[in-house]
Write a structure and sequence with these properties.
B: about 550 residues, about 80% helix, about 0% strand
Amino acid sequence: MHESDEGRPPVFKSWNTWYGLVLGIFVLQVIIFYLITSAFL
Amino acid sequence: MSSVDWIVLFGTLLAIVAYGAWKTRGSKTIEGYLKGDNRMKWWMIGISIMATQASAITFLSTPGQAIEDGMRFIQIYFGLPIAMVILSVTLVPIYYRLKVYTAYEYLEGRFDLKTRTLAATYFLLLRGLSAGITLYAPAIVLATILNWSLYFTTVMIGVLVIIYVTTGGTRAVSLTQRYQMAVIMTGMLTAGFIAYSLIPDHVSFGDTVALAGELGKLNLVNIEFNLEDRYNIWSGIIGGTFLSLAYFGTDHSQVARYLGGVSLAESRMGLMFNGLLKIPMQFIILFIGVMVFVFFLFNKPPVYFNQHLMERARDISPEAIAELEASYDALYNEKSTVVENLVKAIQQEDAGAVSAVKSGYFEIAEKERSIRDSVKVVIAEVIPGAKTQDRDFIFLNFVINNLPRGLVGLLIAVMFSAAMSSMASELNALASATTVDLYKRSFRKEASPGHYVLASRLFTVMWALLAMLFAILASFEENLIQFVNIVGSLFYGTLLGIFVTAFYLKWVRGTAVFIAAIIAEVLVFYCHYFTDIAFLWYIFVGCFSVIIGSIVIQAFLRKT
C-alpha cells in the first residue's frame, strides 16, 4: 500500500462524500422501487 | 443453431481466452500470479468484482425468476451498497496494511493457526461447492438446449478456464473479465430490446410496463416483515448486508479482486463502483425477464420450457402429453382475449375494468399453472429421476426460438462467458487459499517462488477437475440462483463472525473463537434442516452465534 494514496479519493475531497453518494443513490433507488410497487398494488 | 451462430459463439469465446492467456503469459512470482503485481485500476477492480459475482446462473435464472415470481428478487441486493461502504471503511485498509495474500492470513496474526486454517477450510468448502454449481448451472442448461452431452459442455468450460487462469493467474482473470462483461451486457441488452420489439405494435412501452405491473411482476419492494419470506426489504437490507459483508469481505474470490489494486484508493473506488452499479444491473436483468413475460402474453409459450425432456416424455407417453397440450392451447386462446381486454382497459385508464379483467386473468393463470404442474408430474412418472423444474430454461428457450441468426450465438456466448468469468475467479481464489493458507503455511514452508507458482497452477487444475466432477454428478431441485445463495448463506455468517470478532473484540483469543465458529456452523445447519427461517437470516444467525459464543467461551476460559 502507498500511504499517500489513502488520503485523496478521485473527484471528491473526502471518502465520506463518496460513501454519502453511494448510500444516497441506494436510498433513492429503494424509494423509486417502492413507488413503482405501490402504483400497482 | 445456424453456422453464423457457431462462428459467433466459438469466435467470441476463443478470442477472449487466447487474448487473456497471451497477454498475461509468464507470471513467475507468487506476487504476480496471485495478486497481479498490484496493477489494477479502480474500474478494472469494479468490473472484475461484478463479473465474479454475476455468474451464468445470474443470466440464465434471473430472467426466469422475474417471469415466474416478479422482480422482488432484487431486494436480495439491498444490503450490497451498505456493505461496500462498511468494507471500505473497515476491512480493506487492514488487508492493505498487512499486505496479505489471502483474507485468512490476517486471522493467524490476530488469533492463531487453527482459526486461520478453520476459516480457510470453511471458505474452500463453500467456494469449492459453489464452483461446482457455477459450472453445473450453464453446463446442464446449455447441454440440454444445444443437445450436447453434459460431459462435453462441462469439460469445454472447465478446460477453457484452466488455460488462461493457469497461464496468467489473477491478471488473466481480471483482463478476460472486462471483455466477458462487455459481451454479457451487449447480449443481454440486445435480448431485452428484441423481446420488447416483438410485442405487438398497438402495445406501447408504457402499456407494456403497466401490463407487467397489473399482473404482479413489478413487485420490487415488500415492506412487510416476515422471517419466512425469502425476499422482503428487511431480509434484503439486514440479511443482504450481512451476506454482502461476508461475501465481499471474507470470501477470497472477491477479496483477491480488490487486493490486486494499485493502491488502497483504487480498491475502495472499485467497491464504490460496485455499490453504485450492482442494483441497476440486476434491475436491468430482471426487467429483461419482465419483457420476456409480456412477450409470452402475446406469443404462446411452450407448456414446458425444457424441450428436451418434453420430447422424451412425448415419445414415451404421447396421449397424456397431447391431452395436456390441447387443454393448454384452449386456455391460451382464452388468455389472449383476456390480455387484449386488459390492454384496452389500461389504454382507456378504466380502473374498474382493469380490476375486473385482472381477476379473470389470474383465474386463467391458475389453471395454466395447474396444467404445467400436470405436465411435470407426467414427466416425473415417465422419466424417473428427471429434474422437472424448468425456470432456468425459460430465457434460453426464448433466445433460441425468437432471436435472429448470429444473436443466438452471441447470447449462448454470454452464458459461457459468464460461467467462465466467475469460475476463473473462484479457481484463482481456491488455488490461492490452498497454496498460501494450507500448503505454504503447514506443509512446505520454505521453497522457491517458482515452486509456489507451480503449486498454485496445479491447485487451480485440481479445483477445476473437482468442479467438473461435481458438475457431472450433481442434481438440484432448487432454482439454481437460489441454490447458490443458500450454499453461501450456510458458511458466510460464521466466516463474518470470525472476522468481526477479530476486529472489534480485542480481548477474545483464538481458542474461544475457534470453538464458537464450530458451534455456530452446527447451529446454521440446524436452522437450514429443521426450521423454516429464510436463508438470508442464516448469516445473521451464524455471525452473532460466533460473536456471542466467543465472548461467553472467552469469559469461561479466563475463569478456568
